Every structure is written in C-alpha cells, then in structure tokens.
Amino acid sequence: MTTAPTDQTASGTPQAPPGGGIRTEGLCFGYPGRPVLRGVDLTVRPGELLALVGLNGCGKSTLLRLCAGLLKPTAGRVLLDGDPVAGLSRRATARRIALLHQSAPAVPGMTVRQLVRQGRYAVRGPLGMLREADDPVCARAMADAGVAHWAERPVDALSGGERQRVRLAMVLAQDTRVLLLDEPTTYLDLRHQLEVLSTVVRLRAERDLTVVMVLHDIGHAARFADRIVALRDGRLVADGPPDEVVTPRLLAEALGVVGRVGRDPEGGWPVCYPDHPLPDPPGIEDDNHFH
C-alpha cells in the first residue's frame, strides 16, 4: 500500500494526512532469551496526548519503534488508522507517523535549516532533498517550534534545550498527524523540560495531532497528558486518565517506589511525593489493569 504525499488547500497551506489513530493487537517483541513486550493491546485515539511511563527496560521505547515500523513484532500487529504497518513501506509509514528518538548524533557544521529539512525526506525522496529551497511545510515547522530565527546557526552551537526544539521541528517537518516522542525531555534542565512539553501541548492543539510520548517524570505525565499508560515487564499494567491511575499503587507496581499522591491546589492534577525506592518491586504475574 502506498500513501499520496501531503495535500494542500487552495491557499497553499500544507495539510497533514487525515486520521491519527493507532492500535496494537497482541503485540510481542523480544530477543533470544529476553522478551521485551508480552502481548500489548492498546488503542490511541486520534487527537489524544498519551504518556508512556515505566521503569527502564519495560518496553516503552520498543513500543514506539514498533508503532513507527522500525521494528517487526514477533507476534501481533500495529494498525495505523486500520492499515497494518507491516503492509506499508518505510517511506509510506514515515508519511503518516513521525518518531523523535531519544538522542541523535551531532552533525558538525549542519545548520538548523539543514537539519529540519531532513524531516522532508519521506515526501521528497533522495532526489528532492537535493533542492535547496525550503517548502512551506519546512518553514511552518521551524516557525511552530520557535526556531526560525536560528535557521542559519550551527546546531552544535545551540544549548541542549534549543537543540531539542530543533529536533522537534524536524519531526514536525514530516507533516504527519501522529508524533511519537521518546523521552523528549532527557538531559534538559527543568526550565527547558517545561518549555518543550508546553510546546508539544500547544502544537498538538494547533495541528490536531495525536501524540504519544515516553516520560520518566510521572509528575510531568500527570500534568500534561490526557491519558497515562504504564508498562511493567513488557505488559500494560495501568491505562487511564491521570486522576484515575496516578496512585500509590502505580508508584509501587510500575515505578518501583513507595510514595504518596496529592493534588495540585491550582491546576488540580495529581502530584507525586516519592519517599524511597522499593528494594525489589513486586512482580506482576498477569496483564490485568488496575485503576
């Protein structure tokens, strides 16, 4: 199956492809002797902002890469708006879903404009990338991420927070309806964490995006996400709105800490107070959800 390039309105404004729903059915993945995901059933609704949380190694990043078509499941399948990812070419998938990896190697001398243009590869192809001029999608991506005024600056001369906004502009330049963000706040100080997450929330509303992001900070997940999904040992163990799933039990069973949960007096979202790590977090023997 192939997907047509992004359409434009009569005014020339680029439009993202329709849809934005993701569904995984019995999704399994692993390596010899080490299963990573063990039968994950998950539906992400169009326009939703979902946060994936859990301990290191629980399968969060693997789940994102499977949804983006970068890995092949050992069992089960991923559907994008009802279409199996396994039936799409790599470029066709990249026209519909964009993944921001945890980190990317620096390219000495590459400017912000040049890096953001890499996001147009799925639409333009290798020959189209030889053209120097930015298209409207690329220009909009830089403007939306607030990096247009850095266009000619070398990426390696920017701060960590600035580079992360440039990388966000690069995935926006793919012009997809779905964004997968793998730990977008890693290595950032608190100010830049809030800046990046606020930008994601704003762009999700302005562009009508579906966003799935891996976060380590349960406080940020509770504040910014519509829905939290927790993984433990490759199984989905919690799924629901922050008000329902952010509990002391979630802290213990999915994050391995003893803690308390309160309420922000102004915003009303759950606030977590971790007290100490569990020496050996209890195992989860099945994939029943708790709320």
Automatic annotation (TrEMBL):
Domain ABC transporter: 22-258
Coiled coil (residue ranges): none
GO molecular function list: ATP binding
Keyword Iron recorded: yes
Compartments where found: Cell membrane
Membrane-topology descriptor: Peripheral membrane protein
Keywords: ATP-binding, Cell membrane, Ion transport, Iron, Iron transport, Membrane, Nucleotide-binding, Transport
Top-level taxon: Bacteria
Pfam families: ABC_tran
Residue segments, region Disordered: 1-24
Polar residues biased stretches: 1-14
InterPro entries attached to this UniProt entry: AAA+_ATPase, ABC_transporter-like_ATP-bd, ABC_transporter-like_CS, P-loop_NTPase, Siderophore_ABC-ATPase
PANTHER family per record: IRON(3+)-HYDROXAMATE IMPORT ATP-BINDING PROTEIN FHUC (PTHR42771:SF2)
Name of the protein described by the UniProt record: ABC transporter ATP-binding protein
The species this protein was found in: Streptomyces lichenis
The organism's taxonomic lineage, starting at the top: Bacteria, Bacillati, Actinomycetota, Actinomycetes, Kitasatosporales
